[in-house]
User: Fold these one by one.
Assistant:
Number 1:
Amino acid sequence: MLILSRENIEQIYTMKDCLEDVEHVFREHMQGNVTTPVRTAVDHPKYDATSLYMPSYLASDDYVAVKIISIFPQNHKHNIKSLQSVIVLTEAKTGQHVAMMDASLLTVMRTGASSGVATKYLAAEDADSCAVLGCGAQSLGQIQAVMEVRALRHIYLYNRTRAKADEMKQSLLALYPDWHGEITVVENADEAVSLARIVICSTKATEPLFAASSLRPGTHINAIGAFLPHMREVDSATVQTSKVVVDTLEGAEHEAGDLLIPIAEQEWSFAQLHAELGEILIEQKPGRENNAEITLYKSVGVAYLDTAVAKTVYERAKAAGIGTAVSL
């Protein structure tokens, strides 16, 4: 088995690579080449935390993977990362467990890439401004992916604790030293949304972050933070007025509080869902159809994204002689 650290992965895998893998596997899913049970979520109320167990099989690539991810928001009190995860990759031809890799970076990357693919097909072609609501671990990957598919000139950062937004601004300036855009930290979410053509929601909120009235015509929203039925980042009015696209219908029906809460309040239904993202990629459904419509991509995450990226990372690492080989 090959053990791969975050540093190993950073040597061989980029956001551009991840966008290609994610778009590919969404298409494979639509062709029936993916088997993905709904993930198992284990809550830890004592610590306000959650553990997720996410298996998936890519028949076309002959790999199986299971990701175990823990989300412990209170870890900052102990100077421990709040999001930690590993992926175990299995070769489906023989059942050999061929790799175990740190998945914290890959989770951020593949979640960002999922939004990046959605942005590619749903945001206005000339969208050059982005509001980021929530500047935690996931938000950097979200911004990186959007930067790959749209030529941003303005980024507006909002976080409940301003210091995290200030830190994100410095991280972005360091990551993109040759980028000539402008980054502004704003004081409230509605202000950020009113200034942007693309909105990223990346929080653990249980109440909407902004009012639908703050949205500009033609805005695209990536709502990726809420991953349990009681969590939500957008209000019912936003859902009602948006063309809604999900990563998978099955996952959304089980976990997408942004949609399940309006359904419970009889303000929306899955009959109004526009598409799964894969349906747009294979042209069964249209993406953006005009410059005025508001589009909403709701993602709760799906395990086949992890299997797809882990497969590429493993094969590249093996070819490059990177990582630590161990015998089981």
Number 2:
Amino acid sequence: MVLALAALSWLSLCGSGLADTRIALVIGNSAYRSVSRLDNPKHDAALMAETLQGLGFDLVGGSARLDLDEATMRRAVQEFGAKARGADVALVYYAGHGVQVRGANYLVPVDANPSREADVDFQMLDVNVVLRQMESAGTKLNLVILDACRNNPFGGRGLRDGTSGLAQMRAPEGTLISFATQPGNVALDGRDGNSPFTKALAETIRRPGLDIFKTFNQVGLEVKRATGGTQQPWVSSSPVDGDFFFAGQTVAPASTSPSAAGPSPDPAERAWAVTQNTTSIAVLEDFVRQFGATPYGSMARARIDELKTTQTAARPAESPIERAQAILPNPHLVPRMIKRNVSQGYLNLRREPGQKSEILTRIPAGETAMVGGCLMPGDGVSRFTSCRAVWNGVVGWVSSNGLE
């Protein structure tokens, strides 16, 4: 009878999905003082805070924490670590600037103003500090969600190692880390008040019947569709004990078939369900490091070989952007001023090199963009030199004659 009651209690917990103790810290940094401000993180954080509270999460501070300086940000993380002790689920969501330096990822408070690489340890927050707080709390499941894969705003200030996007990192035991896009890539801010990643995340976690692996896989598919394939969210996960549903499980009819037994308990199988459709070799190599001894490791290695063959094979026709990527695989972006005397009063940021490509946005004269990796004229694309540029999180191309 004791075993039966325990089993019924466990089924009740899984069926509701909301009976566990859930703690969350939500941070959105927009109002940066020394670098370009960001429009959407404050809105993204507010959306996530409202969504998580509706799903039974107890928020540190009672709401989204907005525009935190370095000292306040550290206190918030420390408060989160104390509140998460003994909880079932601990979640940290961050939207704002983030940078990678020497392979480590840092979240950027609004007062950060480093003049050299060594300043990051004192002016920014290493993501590993958040992970250590979770480990110390002894939480059963830890979730770290980073909508921070933007361009490096300090690229011209001595942070030469800091490249765009965030670095690949391995999740500790019982932890899932979700990035807005793949390692080293830049995520889009969005144009309707929320980033494509956070908008998809907030909608998806409200759907019952999705465990965390299916949840983030669905988020990735929706973001990929919404951005035309230019942004693909990425997940790093260690084996997770048990199942977690943000919005609870759906009630399925009783069945004795294996397919009705619920999600597979095999962590390699569940991780492969999230990873198998990626086009990132780095993500697949990370999967092989974690699950290389399983049958899914063999499939991942085969997928790596397939992608390498595809990427090195000669293609009959390349678009201007593909030719540019082949010439400039990793351009070093530096701040450049948009000329104040440009004829239209703004400089077009286009999807591809040349004057005929779609205009993504217009950069007002006098603004500063991150620029680097230029294509010389004479390639049949443009009469002027075209340079890769990032402004307000939008990645595109500008004509160099509009730069100072």
